[in-house]
Design a protein that fits this description.
Number of strands: 16
Bound molecules: 3,4-dihydroxyphenylalanine
Strand order of the largest sheet: 3-7-8-12-11-10-9
Shape: globular
Radius of gyration: 22 Å
Strand content: 25-35%
Oligomer: single chain
Distance between the termini: 33 Å
Order of helices and strands: HHEEHHHEEHEEHEEHHEEEHEHHEHEEHE
Length: 425
């Protein structure tokens, strides 16, 4: 299992992101005039989508989120995930994990932490990035990496988007759990919607003054003690190590790793909150710590779930294996159906990005798309670059027919050609 790559935090993967996506601008071509065959095709391949949902008390219509407008890059398949709130289901691995973390905080801090798990995932660019000091040129702000509803509104790409607002509202101890959205590649540990939990604790001078150490060291020490306790609560008596890292919103910043199933596994990112964030929230005499963790990454190892798509499965053979309060029951694969591989090669253009390709594949094949992998890449004497991608199609619930896969692949080829500004080979 490639757990070291599992989805958890963006900012700790900055260098990876930079090498993969930097300098590429987003030019995802929305077909300008949708021909009738285009409409037909879309109808056939798009999933049925409820047209109005309620999110954190706010009513949201499809037209509010999915629009044929160059500042919008939210596809129907993403709209169909809004409001599913897997983390609020007590019988679901993500809900079971969330509850286990809540239980740790409730017992260790006598219910002092306020808990939020129903905040609307549609947030402003300011909340998602500016309020947590993400630099103006950070790659995570690009249309290639983030879902934009319009130029000032996004689907949150991390639960840190709620830090500043909750601080301003006077909360000093809180946990925020929610679905987060990122444009990304396709493999067993990446899915464009996943779940995170954010934790924040604010201290006042009384807390650290008696200790005789400076406020930052005091917060860092408390943070490490708290999170080591959490890791033991979830994983038992494991070996742990702290790695220094960088996040825009904390200084110093750390990652916690545990030695589990013979591998070092990154569990979370954390640090002492940047003073500027506290100051802007009206807290000038305080210090705080914060952490963020990816629920899928932890649930995959705790429950032995081999593919991130399974979290979305409604197949009873999956759902019936988990019950409320049962953390770490090992998932038993009900069957393994063979994957089917199809290759697609094309000459890319300047604006080509792998995330745009993956969006098309996901839009057509949905959760049948298991992996999209670049298997060949060369530039000819004329300077034209060719990419060959291998797409793995596999259902976790049934065998796919040749006809069905050929149909999917045919549609992928058509849309890649018409929407990505590339030339098929
Ligand atoms: N928001 C970060 C991410 O998604 C995770 C994170 C790291 C949250 C450190 C924090 C923190 O609050 O202190 O990559």
């Amino acid at each position: 299992m490639a757990m070291s790559l599992a989805q958890a935090t963006i900012f700790s993967r900055t260098s990876l992101f930079l090498s993969r996506n930097a300098l590429r601008s987003f030019t995802f071509c929305v077909p300008s005039s949708s021909s009738s065959s285009d409409n037909l095709r879309r109808k056939k391949w798009s999933q049925p989508v409820a047209s109005v949902l309620e999110l954190g008390g706010v009513k949201i219509a499809r037209e509010d989120v999915v629009r044929d407008d160059p500042t919008n890059n939210v596809p129907d398949i993403i709209f169909s995930r809004l409001g599913m709130q897997l983390h609020r289901r007590d019988q679901h691995p993500l809900g079971i994990l969330k509850n286990a973390i809540h239980e740790y905080f409730d017992t260790s801090y006598s219910n002092k932490f306020d808990k939020f798990d129903d905040l609307c995932p549609i947030v402003s660019v300011k909340q998602n990035f500016d309020d947590v000091l993400v630099p103006a040129d950070h790659v995570s702000r690009s249309y290639n990496d983030t879902y934009y509803v319009d130029s000032q509104t996004v689907l949150r790409c991390h639960t840190s988007a709620h830090q500043a607002e909750l601080l301003r509202n006077g909360h000093t101890h809180f946990l925020v759990t929610g679905d987060v959205y990122r444009r990304d590649s396709i493999d067993s540990t990446h899915y464009p919607v996943f779940h995170q939990m954010e934790g924040v604790r604010v201290f006042s001078p009384d807390d650290w003054e008696a200790s005789g150490i400076d406020s930052t060291s005091y917060a860092a020490e408390d943070l490490k003690k708290c999170l080591e306790g959490l890791a033991r609560h979830l994983f038992g008596a494991v070996e742990m190590r702290w790695i220094d890292t960088y996040f825009p919103f904390t200084n110093p910043s750390f990652e916690l790793e545990i030695y589990f199933q013979e591998k070092w596994l990154e569990v979370l990112g954390c640090g002492v909150m940047e003073q500027e964030i506290l100051k802007r929230s009206g807290k000038v005499n305080n210090v705080a710590w914060a952490f963020g963790l990816g629920l899928e990454r932890l649930a995959m190892v705790l429950f032995d779930i081999p593919d991130i798509r399974l979290f979305w499965s409604t197949d009873e053979r999956f759902t019936s294996q988990f019950s409320k309060g049962q953390l770490g029951v090992k998932f038993k694969s009900f069957s393994k159906f063979p994957p089917c591989y199809k290759d697609i090669s094309f000459w890319i253009s300047e604006s080509f990005t792998e995330n745009n390709l993956c969006e098309i594949v996901r839009g057509i094949a949905g959760d049948l798309a298991e992996e999209v992998q670049l298997i060949d890449n060369f530039t000819n004497k004329k300077g034209m670059t060719s990419h060959c991608y291998r797409i793995a199609y596999r259902s976790m619930e049934r065998s796919l027919t040749d006809e069905e896969i050929n149909d999917l692949q045919w549609n992928v080829r058509e849309q890649v050609q018409s929407r990505l500004n590339v030339v098929l080979r």
